[in-house]
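User: I'm curious what two different proteins look like when written out as structure tokens. Can you demonstrate?

Assistant: Sure. I'll show them one after the other, since each token string lines up with its own sequence. Here's the first protein:
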Amino acid sequence: MLQFDTNGYLTPDRNISSTLSELEQTFKINNIREDIYNLYLNYSNELKNIIGKDIKQWVDGSYVTKKNAPEDIDILTFIDYDDFEKYENELNKFFYPNSKAEYNIDAYIIVVYPNNHKKNFYYRSDYANWLTDFSKDFKTNTKKGFLEIVI
């Protein structure tokens, strides 16, 4: 069961392992949230169909708070570098600003390079930056958690 602080943020302030089912049961609680969830599901299924395998995502934004009427959902998808290079043209609509226009989702892709790859430093740097960004509310600097889901 997910835990929230008094501000309605997920706790602890890190990536919290979760499931698609838990995301749905916890946050799809009214019509506004149902619409956002359905857009997210459509986005994720279309992306997964292109890649052809399970994908890891960090799910953040006002959607994963206790806010009654969130504006949207923020997604960071982890894609292996070889898949990214293979499907780069098809992936264009899956990150911001195209994802916002197509799905009303603030979506970003992080390219995963293995430890022995010459570009692994970029992956590690991006990972650290996103972890910092998703672990706090940028407006209030309040610490918060976010979900990590594999679909």
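Here's a second, unrelated protein for contrast:
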Amino acid sequence: MKLTVIAVLLTTAILTGVVFFPIYVELWLIGWRINAIIRGMPDKPE
């Protein structure tokens, strides 16, 4: 029984990570761009 529970938890964690990773990356990029604009830097790094 314990192996089944562990397998289900791992699958849930992996699926959650796959779903939330792009959202996290997008939020990070938006934050980085806002930070760059506040500092008066160009949008893209040289």
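A detail about the second structure: The radius of gyration is 18 Å.
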